[in-house]
Amino acid sequence: MSAALTVEGLRVIYDGHHALKGVTLEVRQGESYGLVGESGSGKSTLLRAIAGLAPVAEGQIAVGGERLGARRDKAFYRKVQMVFQDPYGSLHPRQTVDRLLLEPLAIHGFADIEARIVRALDEVGLGAGFRFRYSHQLSGGQRQRVAIARALILEPSVLLLDEPTSALDASVQAEVLNLLEQVRGDRGLTFLMVSHDLAIVTHMCERLMVMQGGEEVERLSADDLAAQHVTRDYTRNLLTASAGFVRRA
After folding, report:
1. CATH code at 3-241
2. I want to staple 131 with a disulfide (CB 3.0 to 4.6 A). Which of 36, 98, 136, 210 is the partner?
């Protein structure tokens, strides 16, 4: 299976701090790949570097075999979209849902805007009645559904998911995760997903990388993680510390 996303020797440095120290990663087409580790391990920095939101000091990133330059162009954002941890912070408070969804379509020159907005809201389980609401009028789960709709509306092939449910209540988390699984199956999407919750990664991802201090610790299949077939003490400690982690037989 071909690679949807490839990262080679990626280094990110902030004010002398090495946030990523030569990370290498390959995500296959249609795969859901997880990144786990404690806070400050470099998980979110890796997503932000891919999205062009963090400065790359060294290394290469390729999407669908095409290497990316220092700047991301429109073509990149047609292929790759990111869903952030905080749905309230990522949505403009003075724009209606309609405007939030219209903006990327207008930027990229889509013609059938009306039909795409209706379809996007439908796909994430929100009806047309939500179109002219503001983000403060929505629940956390509804806001994250809007954020997912905005990411999907350009029909990307890769979604970068940065703790997409960690700000939500447990019952709403399950709904949003089920939605993400549904759209991945329907659209054949590729996911690169950051989570501190090992149960979520085991449920959502086929493979994962454990990170610490900006580096890879080990790579595992989700089945290995669930069965606690791990080789590094750091990963064992994560398993012990992960609240709500359920071992699968």
Report:
1. 3.40.50.300
2. 98
